[in-house]
Amino acid sequence: MTAIYTIEELVRKLDAITNHEEKLYKILELYMELFPVQDASLYRYSPIGYFAEGIISLSSKGLSHIREKRDDARSYNILQGVIRERKAKYCSGIEFFKQTSSNYAHSSNDHALLVSPICYGSVVIGLISSKQFHIGATIDEDLLTSATLYGKLVGRVIEDFQGAENSSSLSKRELEVMQRIAWGQSTKEMADSMNISELTVKQYVKSAIQKTGANNRSHAVGELYRQGIIS
């Protein structure tokens, strides 16, 4: 197992990377260097909606985008445990099929799964999953502890890089609308309680999504939630 101080030192070097796409690539590349895996897929996770959304995947075949992948974490027992406990988990053999959803697309080579949470503080903001492992690889508690640590360190790197510069530019009204979305209010409910039109609410939402660099309103709420700007 790689020493903890070595993991911390290697992850710290990621701070020097200024390009967002390159940083995400290096996060997966380093993960594959530190742990006995032959592939690694990076997912964004939002506590709003419980969806894990694919970003990129790295394997011996190279780098690929997996934005079409969008899974409900509640459909996977192993993901529920990873998110609830904020700890890396591994399953193989018959347990692999028990822990993954019947909707999960298994290839003939899929017999095991390692999932590591990416955390920022006490919030899971992403996941790294691997299905292919080096021959004779041993996935024990020490390795899972190291994978959990890696996720915590990487979470800080990602959030510090993205920062709050985008979200800090949100107006008071935009923040109020996003907070109300987090509370579960509909567009009509927000319009009525804020004494504005539904069209204005939608404009605030659209503006907030653009300023946070999010893909949709759930993603924007998740980003603001993770940064502690809304609760």
TrEMBL record:
Superkingdom classification of source: Bacteria
Pfam hit, one: GerE
Membrane-crossing residue ranges in chain numbering: none
SMART domains according to UniProt: HTH_LUXR
Residue span(s) of domain HTH luxR-type: 163-228
SUPFAM superfamilies: C-terminal effector domain of the bipartite response regulators, GAF domain-like
Swiss-Prot/TrEMBL keywords: DNA-binding, Transcription, Transcription regulation
InterPro entries (alphabetical): GAF-like_dom_sf (IPR029016), Sig_transdc_resp-reg_C-effctor (IPR016032), Tscrpt_reg_LuxR_C (IPR000792), WH-like_DNA-bd_sf (IPR036388)
Record GO terms (molecular function): DNA binding
GO biological process: negative regulation of DNA-templated transcription
Name the UniProt record assigns to this protein: LuxR family transcriptional regulator
